[in-house]
Amino acid sequence: QLSNIARTAGLSFLTITDTKGNVVARANGDTKGSLSGDKYVVRALTGETIASAALLPANILQGEGLAPQANSDIKSLDGKVAKHIDSGLALVSAAPMSDQNERTIGTIYGGVLMNHFYDIVDQSSHALGGKSALLDGDAVVASTITQPDGTRVVDQIVPKFDEAVKNNQPYIGTDDEGGTTYLARIDPIANDQNQVIGARWYGIPLSNFTDIQNHTTVTLILWGIVAMLIALALAIPIVERLSRSIARRSAQVSAAAKELGVAIVGSEVSGDHVAQTKATVERSGKLIANLDSGNNLASQKQQLTDMNSEIYGDIVVIDTLAQEMSGRMQQAVTRVAELNDVAGGLNKLVTGSSQN
Q1: Could you write out the DSSP letters of every residue in 155-186?
Q2: Strand 81-85 vs strand 131-136: parallel, antiparallel, or unpaired?
Q3: Residue 96 and residue 105: Cα distance in Å, rounded?
Q4: Which residues fall within 8 angstroms of residue 21, CB to CB, at 6 or more apart?
Q5: What is the band of 112 on the pLDDT scale with cuts at 50, 70, 90?
Q6: pTM exceeding the 0.85 threshold for the entire prediction
Q7: From CA 101, how far away is CA 285, in angstroms rounded?
Q8: Residue 32: how many CB atoms within 10 A of its CB?
Q9: Measured between alpha carbons, how far apart are the two ends of the chain, in Å?
Q10: 139-143 vs 131-136, strand pairing mode
């Protein structure tokens, strides 16, 4: 019955003891013996239920018929045998057995030995991708990591284990296993007393990240080119509209400048006529001052008449120019206002600000 239960539950061993820790029955055969020295059985006999990761010693494994599964020569990275292990990394559970009066009459003790047991690591890799491994101490005892020839990496030292157990903290970094560099995470496995006894190893080949990086770089470059082309396609019409607007504003500025130029020239012409009239009046005054009753009187009067005609003509011209200058100045005021408006529009086009 124990054998059927253990097989159905996927257990490596299942054992029943009496109140003294003596073996009553085993799933792996009829080997007798005592588990009175096993700390988990001792605690279960006090009424405690325990579930923990554990390093099972050789004598326990021997009694359960599991010693061959755990015995291994562990090699270093150079292929030489570094050490031999006969203990086993396991998940164990122990619970008290009680009668109808709630008195403890024994224990039931079972578990799964991880050494060379590949179901868990295979399922982990299938679910997560990458590679998985279990470490008994610093030694790989089950893994999906493969050698170049396709065989599993097992019974091999993992030097990075030391970095994972210094402060019972995970190690994240690169690790070389089976001739491949991995980006790996090593999480310590601790027992119920928080003592590190092994580790879980998970890694992804670093080359995968290089491929992803290269693909991402190429993708970003291509999308950058596409984005630039789209930006140019959108910017060209905007620039054309802006250029046309600036050209239109510039034409307005040019027209206003011409109008101001005409007004300025008109003011200069008016000034010339005023100076000319002033000179004529001065000559007329001198002529009047020199009038006498001599023979030249008639000639001098004629000269005065001519000068008066000239002055009258200049006054008419000055009056006409003055009226024209008044209109021109009014146009100049209007053009100055237009120039301010144009300047404000150009400033807004260039800077986005409405300030002049």
Answers
A1: SEE-TTHHHHHTTT--EEEEEEETTEEEEEEE
A2: unpaired
A3: 8
A4: 34, 35, 36, 37, 38, 41, 42, 45, 107
A5: very high
A6: no
A7: 154
A8: 11
A9: 99
A10: antiparallel
303 vs 309: CA distance, rounded Å: 10
- From CA 341, how far away is CA 54, in angstroms rounded? 88
Q: Which one-letter DSSP state was computed for residue 19?
A: T
Determine the angle formed by the axes of helices 206-289 and 297-351, rounding to 10 degrees.
Answer: 170
Torsions phi, psi for 192 (to 5 deg): -70, -10
User: Measured between alpha carbons, how far is residue 130 from residues 126, 198, 209, 283, 286 in Å?
Assistant: 8, 20, 12, 116, 120
Residue 176, C-beta contacts closer than 8 angstroms, at least 6 positions apart: 77, 182
Please check the confidence at residue 215 and state whether its pLDDT lies above 90.
no
Biggest CA pair distance of the chain:
176
Helix, strand or coil, per DSSP, at residue 88? strand
The Cα-based distances of 252 to 37, 244, 334, 338, 345 in angstroms read 106, 12, 13, 8, 11
Residue found under tokens 């146009």: 331
| Strand (E) or helix (H) holding 243 | helix 206-289
Question: Mind listing the pLDDT tens digit for each residue in 156-194?
Answer: 999 888 877 767 788 988 888 888 899 999 999 999 988
- Given pLDDT bands bounded at 50, 70 and 90, which one contains residue 228? confident
Tokens of 18: 């009496």
How far does Cα 167 stand from its chain's mean position?
31
Q: Are the CB atoms for 202 and 124 separated by under 8 Å?
A: yes
Judge contact between 131 and 125, C-beta under 8 A.
yes
pLDDT of residue 320: 72
CA 12 to chain centre: 48
Establish how many alpha carbons lie within 13 A of residue 220's alpha carbon, considering only the half-sphere containing its beta carbon: 6
CB burial of 62-73 (b: ≥16 within 10 Å; e: otherwise) equals bbbebbebbbbe
Indicate the DSSP class of residue 339.
Answer: H
Question: Is the Cβ–Cβ distance between 110 and 64 less than 8 Å?
Answer: no
Q: Decide: helix, strand or coil at residue 139.
A: strand
Rounded Cα distance, 162 and 298, in Å? 137
At residue 281, does pLDDT exceed 90? no
Strands 88-98 and 50-56: antiparallel
